[in-house]
Design goal:
The chain is mostly helical and 278 residues long. It contains ten helices and two strands, in the order H-H-H-H-H-H-H-E-E-H-H-H. Helix 2 runs antiparallel to helix 6 and helix 9 packs antiparallel against helix 10.
């Protein structure tokens, strides 16, 4: 019941923000999710022995999220959406290069030679790629292709996740990745792949102006498969750290990172599709 109540609150919030509010509201929602997910990531990293500088790395996550969203569209469109948005968004290449320099300098200033240097540096840079860029790409999808395109991606992931669960319960026999997620099965993954691909084709024919069913099917299969990989990747992090959920922030669901793990791997490919291929 707690899980259902949480979903009944979160889904209208996300869908309502995307559909009814200006595009900048979706970017703000992505930034909030990125910050919360980063805090959970940093806690997991600490359990694994990595020391992540939260202020520096967290700033990098938020900046990279904003940069990819802002550089995906003309800057004047962002200014029209809200006067609060920074008028000259930092290009993504400057953000990532600056992050590498700042994190490297911070490590030099605070470390002595030892095996922890490479581990901590990598752990500080990873969340920009793992959390910041994918969530910024979600906001960019709305700005590039419209509300329907972004809601389609969310629907694909929800349909695929549900299909994996019910197909796995009904037909699951062979474990997919028993060392990482014992409950996931090959049969469940196949069910998620089939239903996720079908949802992409059906929704894409309605959302996009010049839909190509074969391309939609290929994209649907790819993002569905990557959604499964994203789920397993986050499960691998948690299992390595010895925790069940990334946090207890969302009753019945765990943490923000638990809810968006599939989207983090699916969003980059979908972003490339809507920006360059559709």
């Amino acid at each position: 019941m707690t899980r259902i109540l949480s979903a009944l609150i979160l889904l209208p919030l996300v869908i309502g923000t995307i559909w009814f509010l200006p595009p900048v509201a979706t970017l703000v929602l992505a930034l909030v999710a990125a910050l919360l997910a980063f805090v959970e990531y940093a806690a997991i990293a600490r359990l694994l022995g990595a020391d992540v500088p939260r202020v520096i790395a967290g700033t990098g996550v938020l900046t990279s999220c904003t940069a990819i969203a802002a550089t995906a569209i003309p800057s004047d469109a962002l200014m029209e959406a809200s006067p609060v948005v920074i008028r000259i968004p930092a290009p993504l290449d400057i953000v990532l290069l600056s992050a590498m320099i700042v994190v490297g300098a911070a490590v030099v200033a605070s470390r002595r030679p030892g095996p922890a240097v490479l581990r901590d540096t990598a752990a500080a840079l990873l969340p920009m790629l793992y959390i910041g860029l994918p969530l910024g790409a979600l906001a960019a999808v709305l700005l590039i292709a419209g509300r329907g395109a972004l809601l389609l991606l969310l629907a694909i992931i929800v349909i695929s996740d549900s299909a994996q669960y019910y197909t796995g319960r009904a037909f699951g026999r062979r474990p997919l990745a028993p060392a990482i997620s014992p409950k996931k099965t090959v049969e469940g993954a196949v069910g998620g792949l089939v239903f996720g691909t079908a949802a992409t084709i059906a929704g894409g024919l309605w959302v996009f102006d010049a839909p190509r069913p074969l391309l939609l099917g290929l994209v649907g299969a790819t993002i569905t498969a990557l959604g499964i990989v994203g789920d397993l990747f986050e499960s691998l992090l948690k299992r390595s750290a010895g925790v069940k959920d990334s946090s207890a922030l969302i009753p019945g669901h765990g943490g923000v990172l638990d809810r968006i793990d599939s989207w983090l791997f699916a969003a980059p490919v979908y972003y490339i599709f809507v920006r360059y291929l559709q």
